[in-house]
Amino acid sequence: MSGGVPRPTGGQRPTGGQRPTGGPRDAGTVRGVRRLLRGPRPEAVPVLAGRACAVVGLLDIAAGVFPRFRHSRMHAVAEVLPGALGPFAAALSLSAGVLLLLLAHGLKRGKRRAWRAAVALLPAGAVAQFTYRHSVLGVLLTLALLAPLLRHRDQFTALPDPRSRWRALANFVLMGAGSLLLGLVVVSAHPGPLVDDPSLADRLTHVLYGLFGFEGPVDYRGDTSWTVAFSLGALGLLTAVTTIYLALRPEHPAARLTEDDEARLRALLARHGARDSLGHFALRRDKAVVFSPSGKAAVTYRVVSGVMLASGDPIGDVEAWPGAIERFMDEARAHSWTPAVMGCSETGGEVWTRETGLDALELGDEAVVDVADFSLAGRAMRNVRQMVTRIERAGYETRVRRVRDLGGAELDRIRRAADDWRGTDTERGFSMALGRVGDPADGDCLVATAHKADARAAGHGDLKAVLHFVPWGADGVSLDLMRRDRAADPGMNELLIVAALQAAPRFGIERVSLNFAMFRSALARGEKLGAGPVLRAWRGLLVFLSRWFQIESLYKFNAKFRPRWEPRFVVYRAPADLPRIGFAAMQAEGFLNPVPPLPRFLRRRSTAPRPCAHRTTAEAAPARAESTARAA
């Protein structure tokens, strides 16, 4: 009997060092080859195409600007890409690079028009490669970039963003500044052939002349002057062509609430408005709206810098929220907008994240005062009590009324005073601001005013401060705006909030929502004993930012009235989107205004609300029919 180890039955062990076929390594290799032949995932094509365009554009710009790059090994590779075309290689490479950079962002977002421009540009580049350079490799690489665009054209379906004539002016300013800087680099990138040593002023003059097609004061030896002249002329022509195109193309105005949309929203608020204190702010007329298929819920939004920004919770029946949220996400996908929600409640955040897969982050807290629990008595309210008493002794009196109970002349005086006391050229507020005062449709709004008879009073008479509250269901109000005369005594806002809280039972109001305090929990915990270094550093940063933004001051102001704090959240798609969402939110709230408003004499006199400009006639017709059927 052999003493060997018995072998397992069911197969022979391979001998001679042979590997079994079909092992995990071979299977992985096969899968890798198949993945390579199959190409990128369709949903990844827009991002990859945008990045490819950006890389090619940068290479083309480098080839058009720097002479050393055109003679380097890197340029030997870059030459086969679209841009280097015969005798005008530098100028055409520069202009092609700028165009590709302009298209890159649109391709990343899956914009249909950017795709059309890229599909038109790439074949033209392939023909030019073969005609001027007889480069077969250049044609093949160009077609290799074109192939995935054509194969996955269904990924480039995003509709245009809202736009106006100001886009042409912004393009002229930005492209002009960019052309000026890039032209200065072009002029200075040829130190060898330069005649003498021109000053910076001479070089800037040469660039300005060259952008308009004229010869400047800078001289070069040899053919360099032609290269620089063609490059500057190409930049100037590109700036002019893009500006003219943007100025002549039709406008695509941002959506506005129509009268029908507003009526449907008011009906939803009448039934479900008590659920969210921010519900009435959905009636801002610079917002658009999407309704659920049943019409029982809606989401209002505004598009700012490519971000589809909703605020608060959806309006209407909670059970119908998923339908409205789905319509919102469909609209965002149709335009390749970044979806985001500012200031939703905990319940709203849970529904948003569950239905869409988005994430939520606590943004701050809303201060809510229960009227039954409010009192000026006690040590905690001593500062507010003393301030109110001092102001009342100074001769101020308060009045709290519904908007519908005010006369036309007094409403007009309040509106003018609110505008004059605003302090900024733009109206601030989006998520917690209605944007208007005294509208006949807002008769349930509450107005608290402070008055003081003064012989020197001018302009607005005895009116010294205004607070405006919007309805929060039948038994609540939410603070909309606070305005006061800068010459009035300090403490006007505290006086009017106390007056509104004391008068609330007379109007059947049981709860009052005050200002929203961003990062309130971080400020509160960071100043407590035992707070860690990270939390203290975060609080220190917030206090530093409070020099420009009302972060700490709003928290401390709200805390005076001993409210209960209701957390509010921001809902977002990915952490990388947060800076962009923050920038868009600051624009919407009026803290940033990169595009100035039109002068008054150029503004349209008609303020009729527009329907959503992104809906086609075919899409709008069924909606009208559905609305008619529901009304019947």
Q: Could you characterize the architecture of this molecule?
A:
This protein has 632 residues and is of the alpha+beta class. Helix content is 47%, strand content 13%. Strands 1, 2, 3, 4, 5, 6, 7, 8, 9, 10, 11 and 12 form a twelve-stranded mixed β-sheet that branches. Helix 16 links the parallel strand 10 and strand 11. The longest helix is centred in the middle third of the chain and has 25 residues. The protein is elongated, with a radius of gyration of 32 Å. It starts with 23 loop residues before the first helix and ends with a helix.
**What integer value in Å does the Rg equal?**
32 Å
Multimeric status of the protein = single chain
List the uncertain runs.
Answer: 1-20, 69-87, 598-632
Continuous helix count: 21
- Number of E strands: 12
Task: Tell me about the largest β-sheet.
Answer: 12 strands, mixed
What proportion of the residues is helical, as a percent range? Answer: 40-55%
Sum up the overall morphology in one term.
Answer: elongated
Give a quick summary of the entry:
The protein has 632 residues and is an alpha+beta fold. The chain has helices at residues 24-38, 45-65, 67-70, 73-78, 89-108, 112-133, 136-151, 166-188, 200-211, 224-248, 259-272, 321-335, 346-356, 382-393, 408-420, 492-503, 520-526, 533-545, 552-559, 578-589, 617-631, and strands spanning 288-291, 297-304, 307-311, 315-316, 338-344, 359-370, 397-402, 446-451, 463-471, 476-484, 511-518, 564-572. It has 21 helices and 12 strands.
Write the layout of secondary structure elements.
Layout: H1 24-38, H2 45-65, H3 67-70, H4 73-78, H5 89-108, H6 112-133, H7 136-151, H8 166-188, H9 200-211, H10 224-248, H11 259-272, E1 288-291, E2 297-304, E3 307-311, E4 315-316, H12 321-335, E5 338-344, H13 346-356, E6 359-370, H14 382-393, E7 397-402, H15 408-420, E8 446-451, E9 463-471, E10 476-484, H16 492-503, E11 511-518, H17 520-526, H18 533-545, H19 552-559, E12 564-572, H20 578-589, H21 617-631
Parallel strand pairs: 3-5, 10-11
Antiparallel strand pairs: 1-2, 2-3, 2-4, 5-12, 6-11, 6-12, 7-8, 8-9, 9-10
